[in-house]
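Summary of Year 1 activities. Much of the first year was spent building the evaluation harness for sequence design. The harness presents a backbone, in tokenized form, and records the residue chosen at every position. We chose the following record to illustrate the format because it has been used consistently in internal testing since the harness was completed.
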């Protein structure tokens, strides 16, 4: 256990970087996913076709392949960014497809009568989405969004495979190379991931119960 107690700062810093990657990705992917979801239910056919094609294409590519393409492929065409933002961009574009489908399922749960009532009152499509669909859809997808956040966090460990050694898994690999005690080092990393996922699940459950009361 000396490996853990003497390197608490290493695990802490690694977890912090993982949270930064995950949090930034979650926000950016959520915004992109919301736009794609609006496209999916838009009355404009080209927008629906674009969103459908994007979702189908991106979900057919493994995340690690996309990360490798961005990290090692973009510099070859002259697009050079910091490693952090390159990873976040690739992950955001990937997870946006999953956010899109989650949000679209929430939109489909909104009663059609309310949407028709909004149109009868003269609301534009944008107003129907903003005032009727989105507020109710978000209430019904709290748990799916929590699951997506957990998936984003766990898959942020793939960043270590493309050179982001500062995040939790990357730091754990470096410690294992130094101490050669994989059971202890990776066990501690696993405990950090478990604590995070349990915390997110608990928070989502509390939010869901509160929103049920507010309905």
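For this record, the design step produced the sequence shown next.
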């Amino acid at each position: 256990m000396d490996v853990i107690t003497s390197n608490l700062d290493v695990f802490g810093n690694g977890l912090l970087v993982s949270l930064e990657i995950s949090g930034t990705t979650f926000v950016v992917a959520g915004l992109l996913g919301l736009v794609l979801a609006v496209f999916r239910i838009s009355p404009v056919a080209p927008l629906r076709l674009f969103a459908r094609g994007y979702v189908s294409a991106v979900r057919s590519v493994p995340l690690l392949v996309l990360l490798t393409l961005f990290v090692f492929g973009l510099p070859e065409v002259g697009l050079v960014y910091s490693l952090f933002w390159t990873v976040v961009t690739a992950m955001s574009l990937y997870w946006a497809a999953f956010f899109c489908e989650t949000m679209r399922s929430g939109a489909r749960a909104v009663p059609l009568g309310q949407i028709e009532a909004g149109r009868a009152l003269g609301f534009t499509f944008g107003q129907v989405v903003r005032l009727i669909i989105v507020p109710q859809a978000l209430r019904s997808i709290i748990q799916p969004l929590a699951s997506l956040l957990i998936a984003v966090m766990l898959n942020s460990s793939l960043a270590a495979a493309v050179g982001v050694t500062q995040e939790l898994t990357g730091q754990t690999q470096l410690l294992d190379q130094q101490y050669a005690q994989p059971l202890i080092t990776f066990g501690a990393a696993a405990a950090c991931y478990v604590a995070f996922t349990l915390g997110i699940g608990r928070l989502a459950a509390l939010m869901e119960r509160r929103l049920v009361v507010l309905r």
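The CA atoms of residues 143 and 204 lie 6 Å apart. Quantitative recovery figures across the full test set are reported in Table 2.
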